């Protein structure tokens, strides 16, 4: 490794109600692959967005090639030689490979775009990276792995000196990951500084020189990879004080019946051979890191995404779920992690949202019985302690926590006995979180059964009776709350899968 090419000192960034970065330090040397690790929400992506001009830092300094810099846009960062290869590919499917690489920076001959010149320059980039891709191919005809290689070529085309790889292997096959590693090693030999964000512990040991760990928006420490163990890194990632009192004993009766049984569920790469049971009155936590496949599993159970194989039993009966309508008929409700996109209609009232999943029961001929609708909505506003001036209030005017309560009311109105809560407290404040926790415990005590997907370790430990852990589309373990520790969850969540 050479001299330090990039140094971030005491970086601070706050958003309303969230201290996202708290005096964070980070550096990258020439010819180094430096891993940036931490749980979901640790601040890794925020730090990189500050670096590349997507966010403006509140305080701190960024020193690049010996000079203090501050980029106001990704274009400024790219022009200086700092680029990100995102996990979500930003390619335009109907354009050629070369057109994608030089989009917005096209070579021209007069007023016409010079495709011949772009193809030639793209070929030079691929030759430099030892990649065999035809620049004239349409982007949508390439595999995901090949598209990723094009993203890397696009980054190199900016005369990059520092490249940030954000979960680059998440959608790649083993063979494609090997190709990716060869490219990264070549870039390291060319004395580029490389930041590698990943949750895959086996990759970190293979490809990186140093590891920096973040936790709760703070810098924890930096290790030399070859001198550290997986346990060293895991302990740095989870070594926090849990301020919320964790659950120490399951609240579910030993003879509680199984209300949902999933056997050998398969739905693409992110849902592979998933089996589990959910008991009456149980809160079953689903834990794992980004890309583990938890949401994809929930969507497959709910019929929002097609399943390839597997059986689903509700109260001992085999059910066929090919759509959300089928799931709702079976008594399953799904509270999406993106409530504004999939959970509520923000331009409609609290009453209208409450009855949305059960609308036929509120029809009087061709018209909706508004009085009946308002009456039932008031009942749920009272029982859930939803803060709203009236049931005629537009949902867009409610806080995040109260919007979440409206989604819950919708599924309770439909009388769903099985509720899937996907990131139930994402984007809401601490006070609202506690209200949601109390509500979930109340529902469970009344006999509702809950699957809770959460990326917050403290939330999993506080709420769950049992915990299913996933990694890369597979179930890697199942723990009772009595035996669970943060370390056990993290080890299962980063387990190497062959």
Summarize this entry quickly.
With 498 residues, the chain is α/β, with parallel strands linked by helices. It has two domains: 4-238, P-loop containing nucleotide triphosphate hydrolases (Rossmann fold, 3-Layer(aba) Sandwich), CATH 3.40.50; 258-493, P-loop containing nucleotide triphosphate hydrolases (Rossmann fold), CATH 3.40.50.
Q: How would you describe the overall organization of this protein?
A:
This protein is of the alpha/beta class and 498 residues long. The chain folds into 2 domains: 4-238, P-loop containing nucleotide triphosphate hydrolases (Rossmann fold, 3-Layer(aba) Sandwich), CATH 3.40.50; 258-493, 3-Layer(aba) Sandwich (Rossmann fold), CATH 3.40.50.300. It contains 17 helices and 24 strands. The chain has a 6-stranded mixed beta sheet, with helices on both faces. The chain has a 6-stranded mixed beta sheet with strand order 18-21-22-15-23-24, with helices on both faces. A 4-stranded antiparallel beta sheet has the order 2-1-4-5, covered by helices on one side. A hairpin with a 2-residue loop joins β4 (59-64) and β5. α13 (370-384) crosses α14. The longest helix is centred in the middle third of the chain and has 16 residues, at 174-189. The protein is globular and about 65 Å long. The mean pLDDT is 88.
Keywords:
alpha/beta; globular; 498 residues; single chain; 17 helices
- Tell me the CATH architecture of the largest domain: 3-Layer(aba) Sandwich
Order of strands across the biggest sheet? 6-9-10-3-11-12
Say what oligomer this is: single chain
What structural class is derived from the secondary structure elements? alpha/beta
Count all strands and give the number.
Answer: 24
